């Protein structure tokens, strides 16, 4: 088992405070308008991962963020997405069909608010089907 952990990741946004506030509300996690270092709005996803929203004035790259959660958390987050009136979909780049994708023996949805990033919520990791490759067998090994 690897001891490498992703600690924080910067998320470009046109309005860092509103974007951080929305994600924190949807995921029901803590956040702050200002981080410890720099002009970032951190969202504390869990004990080991912080998403630091960064203010950008120009075009934003379209990034993809996937959150694996327990089924009861999925239901709660989906409820908050619906209560917020946000469009969601069953495919990463498909139309906003307000459907849940039952792929891979779980449930998953995608949404793109507020900065057109692809946010994903899933209950089963399709990236881990069959488990991770043995150490030393991946790219760059």
Describe this structure in words.
By secondary structure, the chain is an alpha/beta fold. The protein folds into 2 domains: 1-57, Signal recognition particle alu RNA binding heterodimer, srp9/1; 62-126, 2,3-Dihydroxybiphenyl 1,2-Dioxygenase, domain 1. Helix content is 18%, strand content 24%. The strands form 2 sheets. The chain has a 3-stranded mixed sheet, with helices on one face. It has a 3-stranded mixed sheet with strand order 4-6-5, covered by helices on one side. The longest helix has 13 residues, at 71-83.
CATH architectural group of the largest domain? Roll
SS strand fraction: 15-25%
Major sheet: 3 strands, mixed
- Oligomer state of the chains in this structure: single chain
Please give a handful of descriptors for the protein shown.
18% helix; three-stranded mixed β-sheet; 6 strands; alpha/beta; 2,3-Dihydroxybiphenyl 1,2-Dioxygenase, domain 1; Signal recognition particle alu RNA binding heterodimer, srp9/1
